[in-house]
Amino acid sequence: MSTPVVEVKNLSVRFGSFYAVKNISFSVEKGEIFGFLGANGAGKTTTIRVLCGLLPASEGHVSVGGTEFVPGRENLIKQKVGYMSQRFTLYDDLSIKENMDFAAGIRRLKKIDYEKRRQELLDFIGFKQELSTVVRDLPGGIKQEIALCQSLLHDPEIVFLDEPTAGVAPAARFRFWQLIRKLADMGKTIFVTTHYMDEAENCGRIALMRSGELIELDSPQNLKAKTFSRRMYNFTPKGRNEDIPDLQPFAMWEPYGQHYHAVFKDDTAEKNMLPQLKKNFDIEKINPSLEDVFIRIVEGDNR
Amino acid sequence: MSVFSLRRARAVFLKEFKHIFRDPFTLIMALLLPFLIVLILGNCIEFNVQSIDLAYMDHDRSESSRKLVETFGSSDYFRPYLVETPEQGFADVVSEHAKAMLIIPPDFEKEFVIGRRPDVQILLDGADNSSISAISNYLNTINTDAVYKIRDIPPEDNSPLAFKTRYMFNPELNSRWFSIPGISAVIIALVAIMLTTLTICKEWEQGSMEMLLSTPVTSLEIMFGKLFPYAVLSFCGFIIVYLAARLIFGLPFAGSYAILITATLLFIFNYLALGLYISIISHEQQVAVQYAAAIGLLPTAMLSGFIFPIQYMPEIFQWVSALFPARFYIEISRDQFLKASSWGDLWIPFAAMSVQAVVLISACLWRFRRTLE
Fold first, then answer.
1. Which residue from A183, B58, B71, B268 could staple onto B146, CB 3.0 to 4.6 Å apart?
2. Looking at the partner chain, which of B7, B15, B215 has a beta carbon nearest the beta carbon of A94?
3. Which chain B residue's Cα is nearest to A89?
4. Closest chain A residue to B207, measured at CA
């Protein structure tokens, strides 16, 4: 394999005596969609800030696009990354063109290159409206797509998307992820955080963060297989029966809306209990979702 | 890797100009507010006291006593009116219908003619400190004039010394000539501090600062790009104040435009930097506005010599006032409108403001870097 686009070795970020990020290491390959998951305050945003050159690492090494992070020379990294966050995307009171002009200006893009690139990107997202449209008048999903274009104007090797679809309608989220997959196919590296587990399924690999530590890193399939070695069942209570069975034979029993997702401890428990439970529940075999994994790993131990 | 790229700084200030022109509030604040403040403060701040209502009791009712009252009336400073009883006059002073009361004794003319010095009583409203010293000053002048009028001969000059007073630079002692150059300082402070503070806090609040910092744009470029448009706006505010001073209030301008404009730009720069510093330490618009009012506006109005003369302050406050650029700017501004001193005469205020500018901008850069970490 070629050199990774992002390489993090023993990275720690400390604020006073508090470790926001504690000794994490990982690497991201070119063209990968790398999902970065964790509860709020788990250290996701801090890590992204280091990778974008906003924050110096307290300990450890970071390189992005083959460039080692050196304090004072952050700009070398900043030229190689695009950054888009759900907190802020575009200036509402400016038009699309003015926002793009601004981004091109602070990146010192050549006028010809910039205009060509802008058109390519707008074609890429299939944007047909006037460039003079003021951002305030755009629907949320379109605004997000334009912001994505803006972060790609300087043709970065990698884009960091910090919860890019927060607060966006489901249909628009779906469209946005189609774009992300297309970008990855084109060889761009995507580093994305999200709270939507259905979105995380699209990632090639997922890193799970908890309290500043990297606790899992694998593909969605492997994560599921690793976390749940046994078959998962979906329990739907029959009628108005709300009795919860004796949880002793279960390795996991999680409420899931009107249902329960459950895994037995061992074969004997499964064999013995299933017929009995069928009286009160409709039971079906299911494939665990990433949400199950997330609940199990990230929240399971310290609730 | 350049620390300062004009191209990037230009991108920032072009964007900022667009924000300004899309936001009527900013424009009103920057251009209309100075005009209103000049009009209001220019008209209200009046250190000269005129047309003082004076209740008088005339127990003598002679020609001489009438002439004394006439002298008061023809001075422009007083508007005498007759009251029938001392109680009525006293009640008028209490209710502020009159600022002072004059009581002429029964034998006023008789005593005057035989060369004794009749006692004339003046009651002043001591609760109103602001007009008292002015009134006492006028009384001396009126004393001399009245003697002349009653005797109909010029007063004998007993003094071996004769003071011939002439007021230089402001012959009529017009207090507006004194106050309006100071108002421009307050306005620039207001516009410069408030606008920069708000614009930068807005970037922090909406999270766009993070986006900016993820690009190669440097803090120096952000600062200059952000400050430049507001420097222009503040300078427009200054021009409005200058025009109002000359055209509406009839101020002379004796000095050099080069000196006044240099001082103004330096002063604007100081207050922009102060606004910037406030926005860096507070990050939130609401907090920042309060800081701006407390750090920026209060000292500018109170400790700059704009209202209260610095040389009469307790020494410690004189030192405190030297911390704020407004004191030095007002010194230069007043001087240039009325006196026209040269660069050499004004080197101290210029040097002081330059030092302040360097300190402020260094503090901003230092603080800005630290905030990011």
1. B71
2. B15
3. B208
4. A88
Of A88, A93, A107, the CB nearest to B215: A107
Which two three-digit tokens encode residue B16?
């900022």
Q: Find, in chain A, the residue whose alpha carbon is nearest to that of B19.
A: A93
Choose from A106, A149, A154 for mutation: most chain B CBs within 10 A.
A106
pTM above 0.80, yes or no: no
Map out the domains of chain A as residue ranges. 6-219, 229-287
Which CATH code for domain A6-219?
Answer: 3.40.50.300
Judge: A91–B208 Cβ closer than 8 Å, yes or no: yes
Which of the four pLDDT bands, split at 50, 70 and 90, describes residue B72? confident
Of A175-184, B34-43, B310-319, highest mean pLDDT: A175-184
Out of A78, A94, A106, closest to residue B11 by CB: A106
* Closest CA–CA distance from residue A237 to any residue of chain B (Å): 46
In this complex, the residue of A54, A75, A102 whose CB is nearest that of residue B1 is A75
CA of residue A99 relative to chain centroid, distance: 25
What does the domain layout of chain B look like in residue ranges?
Answer: 6-45+174-372, 52-151
Model confidence pLDDT, tens digit, residues B36-71: 888 888 887 666 677 788 899 988 888 888 888 888
CATH topology of domain A229-287: Alpha-Beta Plaits (3.30.70)
Q: Which residue of B has its CA nearest to A56?
A: B373
pLDDT of A301 higher than 60: no
Question: Do B373 and A53 make contact, defined as CB atoms within 8 angstroms?
Answer: no
CATH annotation of B52-151: 3.40.1710.10
pLDDT digits (tens, 9 = 90+) for A211-221: 888 988 999 88
- A276 burial type by CB count under 10 A (0-12 exposed, 13-18 middle, 19+ buried): exposed
Report the pLDDT value the prediction gives residue A161, as an integer from 0 to 100.
Answer: 92
Contact A55 B5 (CB under 8 A): no
